[in-house]
Amino acid sequence: MAASRARLSRAAAVLGFLLLAASAEAGPAEVEMVFLKNAVAKGAVCLDGSPPVYHFSAGSGSGANNWVVHMEGGGWCRNTDECAVRKGNFRGSSKFMRPLSFSGILGGSQKSNPDFYNWNRVKVRYCDGSSFTGDVEAVESGKNIYYRGFRVWRTIMDDLLTVRGMNKAQNVLLSGCSAGGLAAILHCDRFHDLFPATTKVKCFSDAGYFLDGKDISGNNYARSIYKNVVTLHGSAKNLPASCTSKQPAELCMFPQYVVPTLRTPLFILNAAYDSWQIKNVLAPSPADPKKTWAQCKLDIKSCSPSQLTTLQNFRTDFLAALPKPGQSPSLGMFIDSCNAHCQSGAQDTWLADGSPLVNKTQIGKAVGDWYNDREVSQKIDCPYPCNPTCKNREDD
């Protein structure tokens, strides 16, 4: 009998070990989706008319009244055809969205995300194609498209404030990557104004500092993208008035014209050789009909000496468009010399062994130091290829 019990005990121990190992291999648990079905009646909908979505993981302990709200990226749609394509996938319809796990700035491990791991963590899904700025009452006839990104943003914020309890927040960080990183800048002051003066509110933009620069043919291709987005989505009225009172609306999609007008502390994380911007701002397809930049755009190591000179000039222009270091103690910056795009959402670039370093500091630590006022983190890297810790990253 004793031998039988011993065998059962050993079997249970082995089973427990196997379950633990399987759990470790599976990685972080999926975070369920919150569908705001009541938003449809308010017209706060994705491009296809489906309800907006966010993912929510509740805070605990010392983080119970703190919030990080992270907005998903994914480019823009600037005409009806592009928006119609997005209707058929998760970039324009919540019908195609699935649960996902949190990592990086949204990660739940104290070791991997020491400053934000036990906060209320939210990922706002992106399904409007305008960095949450659009609001057109009329529905696009024929293709049945809704341009309502700003309504989506406001409705999700209202739900977080009134249903989830974000109105009681002590500390809040609005963040985002790529088009979501741009949204973090465009909505920064508006987000700040949702809270009482006693709440500490800051904003963090990852890969959202898109440059108003000339492409390799000498044209301002990026301006044409934003002009079409603003016109199609009716964005002008939802861009920061502090900028639109001085500049044409499409220029107020560029952070370099908005950031100097912000009242709220901001942290800018960006690669100086941003892989998306090299493909779409510096060397977009219309500017490169012979595809001489095709390989260089895919891998910076494939660039010719003359192309590298052009990239170094792009970096110079990018740095010149940033706020000046030391200009404001509330401004944080981490500008590495990587050929990457979005570095806060994945653990290997946020805070892990081998993560990118600037001045011996990792991204997650720099952002945490800045948010908690431990250090004025304004770090700008030396030119490519000086940084061996860089990782290429192009996902949102």
UniProtKB/TrEMBL annotation:
What EC number is given for this enzyme?
Answer: 3.1.1.-
Q: Which residues form the signal peptide?
A: 1-26
Could you list this entry's UniProt keywords, alphabetically sorted.
Cell wall, Cell wall biogenesis/degradation, Hydrolase, Secreted, Signal
Name where it mostly resides. Answer: secreted
Q: Which residues form a coiled coil?
A: none
Query: Enzyme group, top EC level?
Result: hydrolase
Instruction: List the GO biological process terms.
Output: cell wall organization
Is Cell wall biogenesis/degradation one of the keywords?
Answer: yes
Q: So which domain of life are we looking at?
A: Eukaryota
Q: Which family does it belong to?
A: Belongs to the pectinacetylesterase family.
Free-text function comment from the UniProt entry: Hydrolyzes acetyl esters in homogalacturonan regions of pectin. In type I primary cell wall, galacturonic acid residues of pectin can be acetylated at the O-2 and O-3 positions. Decreasing the degree of acetylation of pectin gels in vitro alters their physical properties.
Q: What is this protein called?
A: Pectin acetylesterase
What is the originating organism of this protein? Panicum virgatum (Blackwell switchgrass)
Lineage, top ranks: Eukaryota, Viridiplantae, Streptophyta, Embryophyta, Tracheophyta
